[in-house]
C-alpha cells in the first residue's frame, strides 16, 4: 500500500530534479493517462510545461471544451488547442479500410503534434502518460496478442523525430494507481474514472468512410447513451456506467425507413455497445435493462434528426471485438 501525499511529493521532487529549468511539452488527449501526467508535471514545474491538445474532430461531444476548461481554466495549465478537424477529415475522405483509417489518423496526429511542438523551440523534453502496462506491452512487442492485432495509436514514435528527451512520470504505475493519483491531484473523479476511449476516436466507430456529418450525429447519440447510463442507480448503488467497462454508440452508414408524425423518414442507424470485462481481451455484452435501452432509443430518435433506428449489440468477445472496426 502506498501513501499518496508522500508519493506526490517524491514524484514532484524527482521531476524537478530531472528537468531542472528546461521546458517540457506534452500531448494531451483527454484520456486518463495524459491528463494525470499533465496534472502531476504541472504540479512539479508549473509554466515550464506546455500541453498540446490535438482535436482530430473525432472526439466525444464537448470533449475539447471540457479539456480546455479543466486544464486551462481550473488548473491553470498552458494548453495549446489545435483544431485539426478539416485536415483529418480531408485525409480520411474516401478511405474505408479500418487499418488504413487508423494509420492515417496516427500519422496526421504525429504531423500536427510535431508542427505545433516545433514552434516551441525551447522545449527539451517530451512528456508522455506511459503507464506500467504499456511498458510491459512494448517490451513483449514481437508477440502478436489480441491486443496488438489492431495498430493501437498512442503518441509513440514521437520522441525519435522530435529529438526530445522523454519524461514519463507514470511509468511505474498501474491504471488504478494512476486514477487515484489523478483524483489526489484535483482532477474530477468522473474524468479519471471514464471508460477507455481509443486513440483514433470516433474514426473507428463510424463504419467505413468517415465524414464530419456522421461524426456529429454519432457524438450526439453517444452522449445521450452515456448520460442515461450515468443516470441510473442499481440496488448496489452503482450506475450502469460504473457497472460496464466500456459503452458507446457506433454509426452505421446504412439508411432504413421509419415513420415520424405523418411522414416517412429514411435515415441512418446507430448501434449501442456496452461490455463488461476485466482485461478487454475477452468481454461479455452487458445485460442492460430493457427500460433503459428503450429510453436511450427514444431519446436518440427524438433528439437527433438524421437517425431513426437504434439497435443493441449482443455479441461477446470473442468472436466479436469490442470496437466494430
Ligand atoms: P477490441 O475492439 O480490439 O478493443 O476488442 C479492445 C480495447 O482496445 C481499444 N482499442 C483501441 N485503443 N487505439 C486505441 O488506443 C486503437 O486503435 C484501438 N482499437 C481498439 C478498445 O476501445 C478496447 O478498449
TrEMBL record:
GO terms for molecular function: GMP synthase (glutamine-hydrolyzing) activity. The keyword Repeat does not apply. Homodimer. The lineage of its organism: Bacteria, Pseudomonadati, Pseudomonadota, Betaproteobacteria, Burkholderiales. Pathway: Purine metabolism; GMP biosynthesis; GMP from XMP (L-Gln route): step 1/1. Residues 2-194 form the GMPS ATP-PPase domain. It comes from the Bacteria. Keywords: ATP-binding, Glutamine amidotransferase, GMP biosynthesis, Ligase, Nucleotide-binding, Purine biosynthesis. It comes from Herbaspirillum chlorophenolicum. Its EC number is 6.3.5.2. It catalyses: XMP + L-glutamine + ATP + H2O = GMP + L-glutamate + AMP + diphosphate + 2 H(+). ATP binds at residues 29-35. The chain holds residues 204 to 528 of 528 of the full protein. Catalyzes the synthesis of GMP from XMP. This is GMP synthase [glutamine-hydrolyzing].
Amino acid at each position: 500500500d502506498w501513501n499518496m501525499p508522500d508519493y506526490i511529493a517524491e514524484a514532484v521532487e524527482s521531476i524537478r530534479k530531472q528537468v531542472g529549468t528546461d521546458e517540457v511539452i506534452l500531448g494531451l488527449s483527454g484520456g486518463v493517462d495524459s491528463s494525470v501526467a499533465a496534472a502531476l508535471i504541472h504540479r512539479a514545474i508549473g509554466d515550464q510545461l506546455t500541453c498540446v491538445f490535438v482535436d482530430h474532430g473525432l472526439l466525444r461531444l464537448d470533449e475539447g471544451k471540457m479539456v480546455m476548461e479543466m486544464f486551462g481554466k481550473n488548473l491553470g495549465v498552458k494548453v495549446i488547442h489545435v483544431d485539426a478537424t478539416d485536415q483529418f477529415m480531408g485525409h480520411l475522405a474516401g478511405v474505408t479500410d479500418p487499418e488504413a483509417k487508423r494509420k492515417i489518423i496516427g500519422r496526421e496526429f504525429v504531423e500536427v503534434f510535431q508542427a505545433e511542438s516545433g514552434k516551441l523551440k525551447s522545449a527539451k523534453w517530451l512528456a508522455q502518460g506511459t503507464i506500467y502496462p504499456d511498458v510491459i506491452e512494448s517490451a513483449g512487442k514481437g508477440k502478436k496478442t489480441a491486443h496488438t492485432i489492431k495498430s493501437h495509436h498512442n503518441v509513440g514514435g514521437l520522441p525519435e523525430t522530435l529529438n526530445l528527451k522523454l519524461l514519463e512520470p507514470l511509468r511505474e504505475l498501474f491504471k488504478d494507481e494512476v486514477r487515484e493519483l489523478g483524483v489526489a491531484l484535483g482532477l474530477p473523479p468522473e474524468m479519471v474514472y471514464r471508460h477507455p476511449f481509443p486513440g483514433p476516436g470516433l474514426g473507428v466507430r463510424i463504419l467505413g468512410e468517415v465524414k464530419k456529418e456522421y461524426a456529429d450525429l454519432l457524438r450526439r447519440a453517444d452522449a445521450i447513451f452515456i448520460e442515461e447510463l450515468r443516470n441510473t442507480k442499481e440496488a448496489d448503488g452503482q450506475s450502469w456506467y460504473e457497472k460496464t467497462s466500456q459503452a458507446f454508440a457506433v454509426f452505421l452508414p446504412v439508411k432504413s425507413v421509419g415513420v415520424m408524425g405523418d411522414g416517412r423518414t429514411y435515415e441512418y442507424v446507430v448501434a449501442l455497445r456496452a461490455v463488461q470485462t476485466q482485461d478487454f481481451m475477452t468481454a461479455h455484452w452487458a445485460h442492460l435493462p430493457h427500460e433503459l435501452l428503450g429510453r436511450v432509443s427514444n431519446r436518440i430518435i427524438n433528439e437527433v434528426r438524421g437517425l431513426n433506428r437504434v439497435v443493441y449489440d449482443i455479441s461477446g468477445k470473442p468472436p466479436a471485438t469490442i470496437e466494430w472496426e
